[in-house]
Amino acid sequence: MFKFLRRFLKEEVDEQTRLRLKFDHFRHLLANNTQALETMADMEEKLSGDYLFDRAYLQAQVERLGGSISHIVTELNLLTENRYPELRAISQQIQEEILREFTAAPDIPATAYVLPLSALTEEAAVSVGGKMANLGEIGNRLHLLVPEGFAITAAAYKRFLEASGLDVELAKHLAQARIDDLESLEAISREIQTLVRQAPLPQDLEEALLEAWKPFLGLPLAVRSSAVGEDTDFSFAGQFATLLNVDAARLPEHYKEIVASKFTSRAIFYWKYQQFSAGELPMAVGCVAMVPARASGVMFSLDPQAAESNTTLITAVWGLGKYAVDGTITPDLYRVSRTPSMEVTEQRVAEKPVALVCRPEGGTAEVTLPPEQARTPCLSPEQIQDLAVIALKLEKHFGQPQDIEWALDDAGRIFLLQSRPLRVSTPKTPERESTWEQVPPLLSYGVRAVGGAAAGRVFRLHRDDEVANIPPGAVVVVRQPLAKLVLVMDRIAAILTEVGSPTDHMSILAREFRVPTLVDVGGATRVLHTGQVVTVDADAARVYPGVIPELLDSRTQPDTGVQRIPVFQKLSRILKKATPLNLLDPESPEFQADRCRTLHDITRFAHEKAMDAMFALDVDQALEPRSCSRLQTDLPLNLFILDLGGGLRVQGQAWVKEEDILSRPFRALLRGFHHPRVTWAGQVAPDLRGFISVFANTMYDMGKAEKGLGGKSFAVITENYLNFNSRLGYHFAILDAYISEEKNDNYISYQFKGGAAGVERRERRARLLGEILDYLGFKVQITGDMVQGRMVKYSLLETEQTLELAGLLSAFARQLDLALSSDAVVERCFQAFKDEDYNLSFLRPQQSVT
Amino acid sequence: MAEQILVVDDEPNMLRLLRTILMDKTGYEVSTTNNPLEVSKLLQEKSFDVVVTDLKMPLVDGMDLIDIVKKIDEKLPIIIITAYGTLETAEEAVQKGAYDFITKPFRKETILITIKRALEWKRMQKELAALKKQ
Asked: CB under 8 Å to A537, separation ≥6 — which residues?
């Protein structure tokens, strides 16, 4: 590859040898930089939703990207005599974070088997699960009221599984689970649960549990799952067990019961559906003192189905919160404005005929409430306000909308039992009045839990065990919400329940599967019968007879696109760590190695610093002054030249003139820059700027872009060789060329890669540059926003002429990010290039094309 | 009558996605299963025009499936979807009688075009058979 270099490097000159070695590192760095950018562009392209890909693809690309980045860091340090050692650790850290996406089982920290709630904060999530870690955070950092308690850690779970040999058994059983066969799923679930319940606890764990419950002797406990990863990317709402009002003395038994609940049929389904492997979701368990609740409920700090309404949603029932969560009864529902007025904008007091309460002897019981209490609101206006304030406080603290469980005791104290991230649906669909009234609706009430419209045959579900009989495409009608419906949510059309609320577990899961869902549709089970064809308009809370295509078309449709599949979400998470560019301006004091937050930042930083080092601009071990010169030119270029032999007429000058240049390829390029139809002066014309501000979506900071035009460009030259690196606005162009009489040695390689503009605009630019390079006779490859053109084995004259055109193209390309506001403009720009309108005059109506 | 397509993939998300893509503005009728063991039963119950299957599946993989399908209907085109970087196996599949293969990642249009070609191929085979009879 560097054969030609040898021709001009005189062996006896040490300086030249040193320079050659340095140039080797520089070239390796550039090659890896190109590969890294190419890989990132390829992965970004897959994010468009037009592709189907698998995990193997992701793994291969991540590996390739990691390799390139590691090489870049190594070469930069070789080039700069280890000036940026910290970059190694940063690169490694980002790469490890990315690789974690592929780790089947997260590392379980070696903690004690039991940790008191008073010692927990958010950071403990990997040890005790998000639920308990957040509860600790709320109590210990936010100082809001939470019950006392402790967590049985993920380390305990690991110990239990390994000591009992359960881990091997479970993996065997789980491998057989087929998610399309509900009966086998139930059977496997029963087998696994029996295994877990019967397995003995290792002695050290049992002792730790006995020690933990001592302070709670005689006090009833609530024992619930707090699986690690349970509330992060996927909602396991209601998938795992909760035991209420149980005796602390029987903790080992309760513990095993919760662990067993990891393997209910619905949890296995959901878990396999989301492609969690057997080792994932280590089950930590939370144990807290039972709050003897007068009223309880759930609140969403922001209404997830109507984010634009800017309200907090609160539901409340008498007694324990389970009935609000599982939807046994329709709870009271309050909407509170999130503006400073905190006005209650909606209050629906439901008929709550029953309540779940603690039995003195343990466990819970349903009690019938006197009619006047059943109709009384569970919360006073002050309590509603207090809850809304807490919701906003939690949202602010955790940095995103929260799904919160709370309980009110007899003394009127509000206890927080759980707070976890709430997924707010986008696009936000406002609740609409139906505009379709040509047929009278069968039902015209209910609360939208998941928006959208769907049609199908009614399946009236009477019992839980009939879930397996629900046919695909059915509109499921059931009296009360049933989280077990998750087993068929990937294939049903809609759900209607007679009671329930948008905050119950079934609704949360339905939202995840985007199944249009109406809850609290009184009379649904009476009016609708199995086999009847209906159209459910969840947006307007209407059910019509028959199929109404107009409604299905006009309503928000559930999205079944590629973006929802787990491997796609994995890519999206990986790219968030890889591609955002934070280091934009090399002149900024922020442009430091330790500010690199993504892999793209590392490539950007290394590229810039490699240039500086190659041209000895700011390294201590500067090269001989004669090696590097600056070009004195009327072009708006801040151009540094490194002559490796025969490229310049003069040696050792700080400044050189264009006539001093002997390098043939460089002279050809400069001729292109000076083409009479190219206007460099004045940069982008003010009227074009006007056009841009009106026409373009200005993701682009004009001021910075202009400044970038004056940024450094670099040329490494010999008599026959040119390596030209330039920054054009925020994007880069690298041109590498060799010209000689020997046709077979001649080549030009030209490469563009985008910077800070939006993906769409960058890809448009790539398409246009690809078309132009193709037009100029290059072999073109486009990957995402990266364009590579290559031309080999043309005659000296042809190669020289093409280089001139490449110079022209550089001048032309610098304007493109700004101009390419639509696909139509791409075509017009291509035409402009062919018409030799290199200044894009068509964008300036008042100026005629010269 | 709408063309009948059977899609086999053990991964339910991919299955659902393929169903959505294949049914979007095409007029195809798409049946899916994530259990390759069910395929022979499905083929006997209903007549299909194309089978699209993942190559790597537990119990019965795409290679076995080619034999199963060919035994029931020798002229039924099978399109194999392969994982990233398993080109050799895909070529083997074609040698074994698969109509074509697509390697992930692929564009949505790619599978639509491949299916269209497979359907045309099937039609031509049918016409050819009819001509031979004459």
From this structure: A434, A436, A453, A543, A544, A551, A555
* pLDDT score at A118: 93
ipTM over 0.90: no
Could you identify the residue written with the tokens 């990691």?
A66
pLDDT of residue A105: 56
- Given an 8 Å threshold on Cβ–Cβ distance, is B35 in contact with A560? no
Find which of B7, B10, B13 to mutate to test the A interface (most A CBs within 10 Å of its CB). B13
Residue A828 sits at φ, ψ, to 5 deg, of -65, -35
List, in sequence order, every residue forming a beta bridge with A243; answer none if it has no partner.
A223
Do A840 and A695 touch, CB atoms closer than 8 A? no
pLDDT in the model for residue A141: 92
Helix intervals (H) in A81-153 = 86-100, 125-140
Specify whether the CB–CB gap between A751 and A809 falls below 8 A. no
Please name the residue of chain A whose CA is at the shortest distance from the CA of residue B107.
A51
**Residues contacting residue A338 through CB under 8 Å, at least 6 positions apart:** A302, A310, A311, A312, A388, A392
Q: What are the structural domains, with CATH classification, of chain A?
A: 114-289 (3.30.1490.20), 293-421 (3.30.470.20), 447-547 (3.50.30.10), 624-843 (no CATH)
Q: Which helix (DSSP H) or strand (DSSP E) does residue A242 occupy?
A: strand A242-247
Please tell me which of the candidates A53, A175, A560 has its beta carbon nearest to residue B20: A560
What is the arithmetic mean of pLDDT over B91-97?
87
| From A52, A273, A490, residue closest to B104, measured CB to CB | A52
pLDDT at A222: 94
pLDDT averaged over every residue in chain A? 82
- Residue A178: list chain B partners with CB under 8 A: 34-35
Does residue A586 have a cis peptide bond before it, meaning omega lies within 30 degrees of 0?
Answer: no
Selected residue of A61, A174, A180, A274 to mutate for chain B interface (largest B Cβ count, 10 A)? A180
User: CB–CB of A237/A484 below 8 Å?
Assistant: no
User: Does the pLDDT value for residue B80 go beyond 50?
Assistant: yes
| Both tokens assigned to A37 | 């950018």
Residue A391's identity, in one-letter code, is: A
- Cβ pair A275:B107 closer than 8 A: no
pTM summary value: 0.55
Q: What is the pLDDT of residue A95?
A: 92
Q: Touching check for A191 and chain B: CB below 8 Å?
A: no
Neighbouring CB atoms inside 10 A of B73's CB total 14
CATH number of B4-133: 3.40.50.2300
Chain A residues in contact with B104 by the CB 8 A cut-off are: 52-54, 56-57
Amino acid at site A455: A
Determine phi and psi for A748, rounding to 5 degrees: -135, 135
pLDDT confidence of residue A695: 25
Pairing status of strand A731-738 against strand A747-753:
antiparallel
**pLDDT tens-digit profile of B5-58?**
999 987 777 787 788 788 776 778 888 887 888 888 889 988 999 999 988 877
Q: A46 to chain B: nearest residue by CA?
A: B105
Residue numbers of chain A with a pLDDT score lower than 50: 1-2, 4, 7-13, 426-434, 558, 560, 618-626, 681-710, 847-850
Helix, strand or coil for residue A757?
A: coil
User: Which tokens go with A784?
Assistant: 């995402």
| Beta-bridge mates of residue A138 | none
3-class DSSP assignment, residue A447: strand
- Determine the Cα angle at A431 with ends A428 and A435, to 5°: 120
Q: Judge whether A533 is closer than 8 Å to chain B, CB to CB.
A: no
Give every CB contact of residue A440 below 8 A, 6+ residues apart in sequence: none
Domain spans in chain B, listed from the N-terminal domain onward: 4-133
**CB-nearest partner of A54 from B34, B35, B83:** B83
Taking CB atoms and an 8 Å limit, are B104 and A56 in contact across chains?
Answer: yes
Q: Does B72 touch chain A (CB under 8 A)?
A: no
